[in-house]
Amino acid sequence: MQKDRLITIAIHTYEKAHELKNILECEGVKVTLQNVNLTNPVVSSGVRVRINESDLPLALRLIENIEIFAPSALKECPEEGPQLLVPVDFSTPSMQACKLAFHIAAAHKARIKLLHTYVDPIVNNSAALQLTDSMSYDGISDVAMDIEEDKELSKISRKQMSDFEAQIREKIKDGVIPPASFTSEITEGLPEEVINDYAKAHHPLLIVMGTRGTDKQSRDMLGSVTAEVLDTCRSCVFTIPESLRFKTPDNIREVVYFASSKQQDILALDALYRLFPTVSLSVTLLAIPSRKKPQGDSAALANLMEYCKENYPAYTFKTASLSLSHEIEDFNGLDNKSQVDMIVVPTPKKNIFARLFNPTLAHKLLFHADIPMLSIPV
Fold first, then answer.
1. Residue 363: inside a domain, yes or no?
2. Is residue 236 exposed (0-12), middle (13-18) or buried (19+ Cβ within 10 Å)?
3. What is the pLDDT of residues 151-175, one digit of tens each?
4. Could you say which of 7, 100, 132, 133 is the most buried, measured as most Cβ atoms within 10 Å of its Cβ?
5. 195 and 299 fall within a common domain
6. 313: which DSSP letter?
7. What's the mean pLDDT when you consider all of the chain?
């Protein structure tokens, strides 16, 4: 068998060559440095970084994405360009969401922010802290215990995030997901409030959230958090269930768009086209019925169809409709026929009373369909 020969992948100063050697070896690539002046190595300006030829594909992935595998080596710089927000709880659905997010980020040359929140026990128990007649606080010892618990939760969260990031880097290193620059943040608070506050402050291109199967959501907080974000957030939200019918966004084919037959449809479809401009989607424009028009507005739907054909040449379009009293059942029938890959729902802004007594269609579908859903605020 022919011996694996050494090849030079870089020539650096001693300091830079040694730094690259440490990065590569941490990821399992054996490195040899040559031309080092052993008498005074720091003045050597022509140090060759050499590796086995068989390690070249992996080494190139590492070098081309050095900011991912050695973020501490980079200087802090202001955030620029588009960003995707990925709230995570370190579960399988969170990793599933990350895989899709990294593909989308790579296509848009966007950064990713991983966001994890935990609930502060001090906030939960603040009601138990009461002022007594002797001008002292009851429950001080409980609060002290809560402070220690909060520190422990923060420590656990940091360790979980570190392990989660290591899994992502391993998948990038193996070529399972495309490289994209990412950072992470851990904070305490109610998840839906933290996500909304972050979105208002940073205006992400997209929020990507993992969801569990519909059989688990009724007893799982993740489902309720996602539902609340869908109902309140004014950023595009892409929900990713545990089970997917496609591996990457490029594999998405059948899409159902819930058309309201209003000007808002144009805004939502424009947003969809900006997110997936190169994917050949087959879009079903599904008419949403109303009490005034229980069969939907066929004339408005036909006009929308013509507009779409003219303005979104990468997509193909067809139409369908739902009945007013059987929205979910009719949709399930359509899914059984066409195997829907993604749902797209325009989400108008609602006040708190409307959300309580008339949940959005996106909210309803979240708990009834294990299909990725893109909610677009209009």
1. yes
2. buried
3. 788 899 999 999 999 999 999 988 8
4. 100
5. no
6. T
7. 80
